[in-house]
């Protein structure tokens, strides 16, 4: 048995919002026991926390670990091995920031997930969808107007694949599921980083959206939909989509729909702040940069509206290129309209529920995977303890110390 004891910490129960002073015993990758005065097994590694805060390992439910540039249209021309090298670096840095699990929202595939699980790549546990499904001219179609050829080979490093019509979207969804996708991503509306669509457009017919949902549900998986506007959000929810990505331009009419369909909202506020301030520095085309304002200011109001209505809100960042380093800033941005505990739940227990891993991750309960983060300071009193990564003392993944400054 390989064992680790974290001694004398302030353990945050994210479900109740209460602290308990005590120890955490991890063995064979799982949390075995929590509480004061735990007897350490023979040979266990013991780490004295001296009162530091212990939380479940953080979960970011909207990342793109292969997006090493904000110029997404250039990615398909990159060598897959070169993109993998970038992804390995990006994933390792995410782990150092306290994120022990991430959900990739297009780009990562089974190869990266397998490499992480086997210890070949240091990084968060990776839930992947493969490539996002996009209609021709949709958010996942990165071709400029004058380009007609599109290479959909699975080894190309782009984030999307084009499929038009019910039969084609069924086949595309089945192909991603065949490769082991944990969820299917569909582009249900326009976006910032795509060259030929409008942000206020809706994409895919209702029949196409329902076909993707049917295929995912048949495989006991779910669909995540990129959507900004109230109309795009409503269409996706009515089609049976489980999570709405972004949702910056949703309105009051969408809130009962989220509750009726037991759906999740995954805002990604930090990416718009980062794209506006430094996106062009990291490759964002000028046309895309000019689209940012349309969603930047509305995002925080949409989050506040959804939270107040009781919508299940999950932590996401959607950062690209050199802007990945701002991943923890999302905590600070959300704290403008949410209490710190609510933001922490979005990055732990609620995110785990979305991923279908409630009780496995996002909790300090015995029996859960031993993914934890130890921070200096009290994040319930000052969210900066999580928003500023230099406060992270230890990162534990699968019962092993894998990062931190301690």
From TrEMBL:
Q: Which InterPro entries match?
A: Amidohydro-rel, Metal-dep_hydrolase_composite, Metal_Hydrolase, Metallo-dep_Hydrolase, OTAase-like
* Domain annotation Amidohydrolase-related: ranges: 53-402
Gene Ontology MF terms in the entry: hydrolase activity, acting on carbon-nitrogen (but not peptide) bonds
Top-level division of the source organism's lineage? Bacteria
SUPFAM superfamilies per the UniProt record, alphabetical: Composite domain of metallo-dependent hydrolases, Metallo-dependent hydrolases
Question: What UniProt keywords are attached to this protein's entry?
Answer: Hydrolase
Under the heading Pfam families, the entry gives:
Amidohydro_1
Q: Does the keyword Hydrolase apply?
A: yes
UniProt name for this protein: Imidazolonepropionase-like amidohydrolase
